[in-house]
Design brief:
Strand order of the largest sheet: 4-10-9-8-7-5-6
Structural class: alpha/beta
Largest sheet: 7 strands, mixed
Shape: globular
Distance between the termini: 46 Å
Keywords: Aminotransferase, Pyridoxal phosphate, Transferase
Catalytic activity: (sulfur carrier)-H + L-cysteine = (sulfur carrier)-SH + L-alanine
GO molecular function: cysteine desulfurase activity; transaminase activity
Family: Belongs to the class-V pyridoxal-phosphate-dependent aminotransferase family. Csd subfamily.
CATH topology of the largest domain: Aspartate Aminotransferase, domain 2
Number of strands: 17
Number of domains: 2
CATH class of the largest domain: Alpha Beta
Pfam family, one: Aminotran_5
Amino acid sequence: MRHDPSNNNLRNLIIGAEQKIPLSDGTDVTAINFDNAATTPILYSVLKEINQFAPWYSSVHRGAGYKSKVSSDIYEQSRDVVQSFVNSDKERDIVIFTKNTTESINMLSFVLSQQKSHQKVILSTCMEHAANDLPWRNKFKVDYVEIDSLGRLSIEDLENKLIRYRGNVKLVSVTGASNVTGYLNPIHKIAAIAHKYDAKILVDGAQMVPHTSVDMKGFDTLEHIDYLAFSSHKMYAPFGSGVLIGPKRDFEEGNPFVQGGGAIRLVTPRHVEWDEPAGKDEAGTPNIMGVVALTAAIKTLQSVGMDNIYKIEKALYDYAISRMKNIPGIKFYSDPFKEDTISVIPFNLEGVYHHILPLILSGEAGIAVRNGFFCTHPYCERLLGLSEEDLNHYLEEDDDLFPGMVRASFGFYNNYKEIDKFLSILRKLAENKEYYINKYSNDLSLNQIKNEAGLCTSFSNFGC
């Protein structure tokens, strides 16, 4: 009898884990969330902390009242919790609270663009989310580290490009874990190579931080992570809070990304004196509820143990992969047996359009997955083997359905029983494609599909 790594105690940490939802036949079933890479559910501990704090809720850094002081103290203490979670240097680094990873990276790109330096090149990679690609394009020369046929990052190409640019690379900007393939990149090895050539490193930790332990390491090591960004909504906490961590000195000069109240020390008709970081970069009323939620989530994840979370999710991943490969017509878009990966599975079922498959899984079994390009267009284009000519064709031909893939992603609270149900409906679908396609094709709208695919923008791969 197999051991289920996600036991009832862990499942009981999650709000809505046993929530009933309707199927297409009108019956109810317990919802199964395999879309954790997009947004995770909420922890009970987070809601409890929010409710306990709510009576004390007040403005942060704005008032002399008792509640305002309490709120301000909690807000500032949360920075220590975040830094301890990722082993950030509490003397030299600062924690800036943002809305999410996307805002964090946009903020960093703005800050770095103001620095006077001969270094004008950003090395991104061909596997980045749009949030770690687009913010750099209009401020720097951007080049992309290559990937192999299975979408794995080429460390050799990274070093070759650093050599080629001869000290002009300002930053290597890389995802810690891919939101498409789940690959964990060797961030400390990448950091050591980047520092060897006088470049810094930013790690987009949105998909990495919730699933495995992260250590930014000390400033005195080549493996040090200079900048780290991540989001609470992928860490079982609502209310839209994000984090940017980096050296305080890098945020002292120049103008802040967002300007307004809270970011200033003194304003006259002709002069502005900005506050010190991190206040300088947190204009407006801080999202104290979001920060309280994030801090509570971190404490719960630490109590479960990040190494334990990784082992649980990897066991679920291995179980699903080993059985999915036996279903006729399943095609994977990653190396399914790569060891360094989080629990993300990109796939398609031959003969079933990627937009219909999630509708079938939801309507027949209450299973939520994601489909499309996952805001990681150049990477998915490469994995699907699409050329620039192919993409232009799909943009111009309204009658052709745009390609994509399906993504299943697990959390530590998921279990084998849920995966068995997932496998069962996939087998039924593989054996009865015409029936299910006809049943759910009426739910499709071509305009809806194209809008959801994000076809309002150019799909140029910019070197990827």
